[in-house]
């Protein structure tokens, strides 16, 4: 019977070899950031020295006007909430290491006395139930750890995508504010000219009131544009984890990037998404984990509470006694049927959820790609048709004004419409870059798809002033 304790000791030694990985399980998230966020670095600041290095790099990135890539890099390094999510890897890996090791053996000691006879008992106990279930427990913990790695990688990608969208909105809002102020200056000039002309009797009160009304609307437009620019900038600062002087000091480019020469052609978008989306991988991993738990529930119905004890009794009245005992639970009232049924239902539930996630993913990719192509066509139409046409109309009216064929107010009206058409073009370009970010996210994870709404406010204003 000595072979049994020896085998248990060998199993304990092998199980005790399980340890922590050098990177804490961060590798998949780092690889996802490099592959899907343009080679971005992801660093887990687990001590003050790493935090200081991150602060130094963030300060370097903030010195120049902030590009979309730089904003995403700052967000991945500096956002405290994202850093807090990385500690879920440490928690899950600690669970894996713990599940891979045998529990500590138990030791018991007893001393008995009856008259002149003294008896001492010593016992060493091993949890055989844990030993039998160890392969399943270790495998289940490993799958949970892998699911945590996928979940953390998805959070990193979502945070990067959210930062990219916030950067687009902040730059577009800043550019829209600049054009709103141009409209305001044109409205001020028209209102002042209308006042002077009325004073000399060349303008009716109705005509002056119209110019004043446009000036009042332009002032409201500037106020709204200022608030929109402030809110967009603050959201970007939050996603980058900036506060204090850093949040107030960073600068943005003057304008959004130009429209690409051609839209992306993705004939295999659905297949690509099914193969690489991290949320689908997580759903499949959850299904595999529950399948392992189902196997454990079926394989160990009678081993709960199974223990092996090594006993040694010594007495001053007799020889020392050595032996062993085996204890186990009698399944008289609970034979494990409820636990097996629970595992079966959980597995079927996970399978159905994984199937539905795949169906949703296909629809989300189709929606994202359709929005991307529509946004590209609209932005190109503004760039190639609407803005050049408005500029040509303004140039022609300027020639007519120089020839004294139209008045200054007609020229101002066309200038205002031309500025507003540029604002509409900015909004269309903004919508394209947002759709581009949504499409990238739809191919690797669950996107935050925004529905295509009505025409932008700037476009509506341009249309309203055209007549």
Description of the molecule:
- With 467 residues, this protein is of the alpha+beta class.
- It is 70% helix and 8% strand.
- The chain has helices at residues 3-16, 27-36, 48-63, 68-78, 80-99, 128-199, 205-240, 245-249, 269-276, 278-299, 337-402, 408-444, 457-465; strands at residues 106-114, 117-127, 307-315, 318-327.
- It has a 4-stranded antiparallel beta sheet with strand order 1-2-3-4.
- Helix 9 crosses helix 11 (337-402).
- Residues 1-11 and 453-467 have low confidence and may be disordered.
Distance between the termini: 101 Å
Radius of gyration: 35 Å
Give the fraction of residues assigned to helices.
Answer: 55-70%
SS-based structural class?
alpha+beta
Counting DSSP E segments of at least 2 residues, the number of strands comes to 4
Q: Looking at the structure, what is the overall shape?
A: elongated
Question: What's the short story on this structure?
Answer:
This protein has helices at 3-16, 27-36, 48-63, 68-78, 80-99, 128-199, 205-240, 245-249, 269-276, 278-299, 337-402, 408-444, 457-465, and strands at 106-114, 117-127, 307-315, 318-327.
Any key phrases for this structure?
13 helices, 467 residues, elongated, disordered N terminus, single chain, alpha+beta, 4 strands
């Amino acid at each position: 019977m000595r072979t049994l304790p020896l085998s248990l000791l060998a199993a304990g030694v092998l199980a005790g070899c399980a340890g922590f990985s050098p990177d804490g399980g961060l590798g998949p998230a780092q690889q996802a950031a490099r592959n899907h966020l343009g080679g971005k670095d992801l660093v887990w600041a687990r001590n003050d020295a790493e935090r200081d290095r991150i602060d130094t790099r963030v300060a370097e990135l903030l010195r120049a006007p902030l590009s979309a890539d730089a904003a995403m890099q700052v967000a991945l390094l500096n956002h405290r909430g994202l850093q807090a999510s990385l500690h879920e890897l440490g928690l899950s890996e600690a669970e894996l290491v713990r599940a891979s090791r045998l529990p500590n053996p138990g030791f018991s000691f007893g001393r008995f006395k009856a008259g002149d006879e003294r008896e001492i008992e010593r016992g060493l106990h091993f949890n055989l139930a844990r030993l039998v279930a160890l392969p399943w427990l270790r495998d289940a913990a490993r799958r949970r750890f892998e699911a945590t790695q996928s979940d953390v990688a998805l959070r990193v990608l979502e945070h990067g995508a959210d930062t990219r969208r916030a950067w687009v909105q902040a730059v577009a809002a800043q550019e829209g504010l600049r054009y709103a102020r141009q409209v305001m200056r044109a409205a001020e000039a028209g209102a002042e000219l209308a006042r002077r002309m009325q004073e000399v009797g060349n303008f009716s009160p109705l005509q002056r009131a119209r110019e004043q009304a446009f000036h009042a609307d332009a002032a409201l437009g500037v106020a709204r544009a200022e608030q929109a620019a402030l809110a967009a900038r603050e959201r970007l600062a939050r996603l980058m984890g900036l506060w204090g002087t850093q949040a107030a000091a960073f600068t943005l480019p003057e304008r959004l990037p130009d429209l690409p020469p051609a839209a992306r052609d993705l004939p295999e978008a659905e297949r690509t998404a099914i193969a690489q989306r991290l949320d689908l991988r997580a759903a499949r991993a959850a299904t595999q984990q529950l399948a392992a738990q189902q196997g454990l529930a079926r394989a160990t119905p009678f081993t709960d509470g199974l223990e092996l004890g090594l006993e040694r009794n010594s007495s001053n009245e007799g020889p020392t006694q050595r032996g062993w005992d085996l204890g186990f639970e009698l399944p008289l009232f609970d034979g494990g049927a409820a636990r097996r049924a629970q595992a079966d239902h959980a597995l079927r539930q996970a399978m159905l959820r994984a199937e539905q996630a795949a169906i949703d993913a296909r629809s989300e990719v189709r929606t994202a790609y359709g929005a991307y192509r529509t946004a590209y066509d609209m932005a190109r139409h503004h760039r190639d048709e609407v803005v050049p046409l408005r500029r040509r109309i303004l140039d022609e009216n300027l020639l007519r004004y120089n020839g004294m064929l139209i008045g200054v107010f007609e020229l101002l009206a066309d200038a205002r419409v031309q500025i507003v058409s540029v604002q509409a073009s900015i909004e269309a370009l903004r919508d394209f870059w947002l759709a581009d970010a949504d499409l990238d996210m739809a191919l690797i994870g669950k996107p935050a798809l925004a529905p295509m709404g009505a025409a932008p406010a700037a476009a509506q204003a341009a249309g309203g002033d055209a007549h």
